[in-house]
Write a structure and sequence with these properties.
By secondary structure, this protein is α/β, with parallel strands linked by helices. Helices cover 40% and strands 19% of the residues. A five-stranded parallel β-sheet has the order 2-1-3-4-5, with helices on both faces. Helix 4 links the parallel strand 4 and strand 5. Helix 1 crosses helix 5. The longest helix has 13 residues. The mean pLDDT is 88.
Length: 126
């Protein structure tokens, strides 16, 4: 069982992910903004964070990923976004140690079972 923090402003998406992840035995917390995520993280560190890029601003997730990494460098972050499709970005975002310190970048839509499998690989629970 992994402790998972889902950060996304899409309530329906979070609910779908929570349902599948909880059914697979994981403990799931949700935050619907970067500020709410900061409050949740102050109460304890999860095993993995699933973080959306575009929330209260177009870059909120990028900024939050760098903050989380600075505070908890070993905490894996899986970043999800529809930025490539929504903004027509002609290049791919790739994880790096400074600008995008995440374990993996996943293009939305990410099916709940596929996300669960990626989380389980990331935390070594599968």
């Amino acid at each position: 069982m992994a402790r998972i923090l889902l950060i996304d402003d899409d309530v329906d998406l979070i609910e779908g992910y929570q349902l599948v992840l909880s059914h697979r035995g994981h403990e799931v917390q949700a935050a619907y903004s970067a500020d709410e995520a900061r409050r949740v993280l102050r109460s304890g560190t999860p095993d993995v964070v699933v973080l959306d890029v575009m929330m209260e601003s177009q870059t909120a997730g990028f900024e939050l990923a760098r903050e989380i990494h600075a505070l908890c460098p070993a905490l894996p972050i899986l970043m999800t976004s529809g930025v490539h499709q929504a903004a027509g970005v002609p290049f791919r975002f790739e994880p790096d140690a400074d600008w995008l310190p995440v374990a993996k970048f996943l293009d939305k839509p990410v099916l709940p079972d596929a996300l669960a499998e990626e989380i389980e690989r990331t935390v070594g629970k599968k």
